[in-house]
Amino acid sequence: MRTSVFTRGTTAPPPRRTLRRAVVIAAVAALGAGLLAGCAEDSGDPDSSATKGGGKGKTTITVGVFGAFGLKEAGLYDAYMKLHPEINIEQTSIERNENYYPQLLTHLASGSGLADIQAIEVNNIAEIAQTQSGKLMDLGKTAGVKKENFLEWKWSQGTDKSGKTVALGTDIGPQGICYRKDLFEKAGLPTDREEVGALWAGDWQKFLAAGEKYKAKAPKGTAFIDSASGLMAAVQGGSAERYYDKDGKVVYKTNPAVKDAWDVAAKAADLGLTAKLQQFQPSWDQAIVNGTFATISCPPWMIGYIKDKGAEKTEGKWDVAAAPKASNWGGSFLTVPEAGKNKEEAAKLVAWLTAPEQQATFFAKRGSFPSAQAAFSLPEVADAKDPYVNDAPIGKIFSDAAKGIPVTIVGPKDLIIAQNLADVGMLQVDQKGVSSEDGWNAAVKSIDNALEK
């Protein structure tokens, strides 16, 4: 679950906590099951001793990832090596994407120090496809890879303007709304997931209206939603055009979709519907445990995060309903550098790892939802229920959401723009009570300065 929307999408360099937030989101999205990437080592050299050994007489394929990406943890490497005893797979992980990605760009520029396979986080995929395409294999031509297996928008994100597909998607982050059944009941709202989804179906303004009903009878010390920034990201995740237009021009300042998402989130803050939290901070984690907010925008990997933080204290208290509109938060890709030592064998491995059957296993083992729509009908996905969230049919809920996500234009600096809108602008509106206009202007100033560098 890499996700980073802001995951997984930042006047002067962005504040350290902003960078940390983006990285944590990327790590969370890489996890699927919601465990933060704390066990990986910051060793980014695939030619180091960490990637040698154990493969005498075999072809060793090196894989470079960020965080606890999940493929290894899901047992997929072991399964492939069992099928292909002549192959040995060695993975190198850099814990933080903020360290991983600049190193990757440096290695691509020099043509050295690259793993045979390199992972890419969704917020970096536009820059990779647009500026690094010539240094990567066309995986669309690899035997066994079928465009029709993938969601159209996911395939498009890894394809350059000439039609060369340089990256294949491992997972996506279709969103639902996770909600606390016990808090909804106390506030006099329905608790059945179909009835809950009907409260706000088709319109984020209806979501705010439900929030006002919740607030009227809210259990003491609780809020309807965790954060205004998280809500803003969820609304933006359903737009075909956000920060860039199809010609690559930065348009977030004038794009109605971005301003609408801003206005929805600012209204939530103004109405007092938020817990005024910043996601992926210790206070937010503690709020999950303590049950101080009733809803959160929720891709599949977020359920894993809730499980990790809430453990047995919140088991059975959460459920999942459809979001007002289809939206995506997170997802990653695999690429094969042309300068790799074993690129043909690496391409075969990528084709296998991203095939529907393996993506279904990845979901079953790690919670990373398939980017291959052909996996949606497989039993591991179609029949998936999660006892932690009241046996919610998560396979169906998230499959339905995924099918409605538009082909979204992803720009090279999406992450910078999204982070500043969230952490410089909306955070001030939510936590400090500044006006929507002043928060927007602060974010725009910070983004302009960052994009000029």
Automatic annotation (TrEMBL):
InterPro entries, alphabetized: Bact_solute-bd_prot1 (IPR050490), SBP (IPR006059)
Signal peptide span: 1-37
Pfam hit, one: SBP_bac_8
Keywords: Signal
Top-level lineage group: Bacteria
Protein name, entry field: Extracellular solute-binding protein
